[in-house]
Amino acid sequence: DTGVSQDPRHKITKRGQNVTFRCDPISEHNRLYWYRQTLGQGPEFLTYFQNEAQLEKSRLLSDRFSAERPKGSFSTLEIQRTEQGDSAMYLCASSLQRGSQYFGPGTRLLVL
Amino acid sequence: AQTVTQSQPEMSVQEAETVTLSCTYDTSESDYYLFWYKQPPSRQMILVIRQEAYKQQNATENRFSVNFQKAAKSFSLKISDSQLGDAAMYFCAYPFGNEKLTFGTGTRLTIIP
User: Fold this and answer.
1) What does the pLDDT look like over A35-54, one tens digit per residue?
2) B90 and B109 in contact (C-beta within 8 Å)?
């Protein structure tokens, strides 16, 4: 068990570009969550999956954001036409059923 | 309202001493979990301890324990024998609908050698 992994760890992009982040959950976990954390704040929920089904999306997740979890394994979070306000740490977590959520190291995004 | 409140933005404690971090929450649910997470500087979020609301016994994990007062909707974290490695942001979290975590604003804990 290697824990939750995320790639890349850091991403710098120019405003208007598209970016994609990947999350690999703990292997036996069927639930996967995405959160966003800005400096000095606690994480905020974005969306979550049970297996391959996306069950809920936060109002924070605008139309420029899309998340997928094909085959119920890894997940991707894509941001289209990035804006400076998208700069944040994007955290992924996984859990078994409704158990404790375990977090990955996060992807820090900076939009210039 | 579904909120989690941490009223102590910063706390400090002498090494080897005991410190208590406060958290209150508001919910209409009756069966739920509560969590404390630790986030060291520039490092990932680590689960410290979990409490099931139906359990009257307070959870304990080594030097970490909670004081869970369900009626008062209070969930404090006690760290005994504080160590330098305990320095971090500590977040209290409540999974609304037993799914999405809502976090407090965090308490920055400093350990004084």
Assistant:
1) 999 988 999 999 999 999 99
2) yes
